[in-house]
Amino acid sequence: MALGQRRYQRNAFVIPKLQITSMMDMFTIILIFLLFSFSDNPEKLHIEKGMVLPKSTSQLDCTKNITVSISSSSLKVDNRHIADINQGVIRGFDQQHLETSDLYKHLLTIRHNLDAKKDQDNSAIVIFCDQRLPYKTINQVVKISGMAGFPNFQFAVLKK
Amino acid sequence: MKRFVRHKKTNDTDTDIDMVPIMNMFLVLIPFLLSSASFFDINAIPTSVPVSQTNNNQKEAQDDHEAIKIIPVIEIQAKKIALYALSDQVATKNLAKWDTFFTKQGNRFPLADIKTYLEDMKKQYPKSDTILVIPDDNILYDTIIQTMDIARHSAQNQLFPNVVLSDKI
Questions:
Q1: Is A48 part of any domain?
Q2: Does any domain span residue B12?
Q3: What pTM was estimated for this model as a whole?
Q4: Both A24 and A95 in a single domain?
Q5: pLDDT value for B134
Q6: Which residue of chain B comes nearest to A129, CA vs CA?
Q7: Contact B140 A133 (CB under 8 A)
Q8: B73-101: pLDDT as tens digits
Q9: Among residues 100-129 of chain B, which lie with CB inside 8 Å of chain A?
Q10: Range in A17-31, A56-70, B51-65, B103-117 the model is least confident about
Q11: Average pLDDT for residues A123-144, to the nearest whole number?
């Protein structure tokens, strides 16, 4: 009797079906979201941790050029640390002799390299700057960029 | 009736759609789209600094406003925004009427008033396309960007797309 019951139970076992309907729903939602945020030209732009970019109505795409990043603590060119920033003041910058700064020397080297390659298209600087910084900080960078042969630049902003 | 019930039972078999190929497709598509998705939409505002140049084609003051180019100047100061215009094609007397200022309202600059001012100027001198922005040392970057947005275009049309950042002249 006991054996018979056991056999009956073994025969009655049915492989449970995996309910994938909810997973399909989830995938569909993710797929639609990703399709909307799909970018055919994904730029790998590195934004400093803690940096808050200002919002703007500008529609112009940010082109990958020489990137200058001004955060509340450091100044970087193409991810290379150039100077420290303390309370909006860039360390090691002489207001009267900006051409002695490391930033000027670095940008001048880039300028010479671009001139040697005759690469005029890639000559704009993209400035990533924290929205809480005062103009005096940005002004020094902008002035040095102009002096080093980069009078045209772009301010990176987040789309409003 | 019994026959009908029996017939219905036989037609009630579950027809399972094979979802495996769809799932496979999703598993390929999702990593691909994840790798090329941009979660931050970064745009840019083109700007420049003043560059010294020799001006060989100085024109005399003309009456034809359509052809005249005028450069509005926005000076963002701690408590107000001063506005005036520069041009070598317009008489100083005519330029002086554009001198004005808007005081700060609480923590905000009256950007809507500036927009109206710039729209009037653009209407009078439609060929003008450059604007000079001169912020004070302690003006925040965010305020400069908001001012640039106002200066570059209004809701209806483009105002002064070429923004030049400068120190006090």
A1: no
A2: no
A3: 0.75
A4: no
A5: 93
A6: B141
A7: yes
A8: 999 998 899 999 988 888 888 888 889 99
A9: none
A10: B51-65
A11: 89
Å between B95 CA and nearest CA of chain A: 28
- Whether residue A62 and residue B153 make contact (CB cut-off 8 A), yes or no, is no
Total of domains in chain B: 1
* Rounded Cα–Cα distance for residues B169 and A6 (Å): 98
User: Is residue A8's pLDDT more than 90?
Assistant: no
Domain range holding B125? 69-165
Q: Which among A20, A131, A158 is the nearest to B141, CB-wise?
A: A131
Of B23, B48, B141, which is closest to A135 when you measure between CB atoms? B141
In degrees, to the nearest 5, what angle opens at C-alpha A16 toward C-alphas A12 and A18? 170
Contacts of B44 (CB under 8 A, 6+ apart): A58, A60, A61, A62, A63, A126, A154, A155, A156, A157
The predicted pLDDT at position B60 comes to 47
Residues 14-43 in B contacting A (C-alpha not used; CB under 8 Å): 16, 19, 22-23, 26, 29-30, 33-43
CATH classification of the domain holding B131:
3.30.420.40
Residue type, A56: S
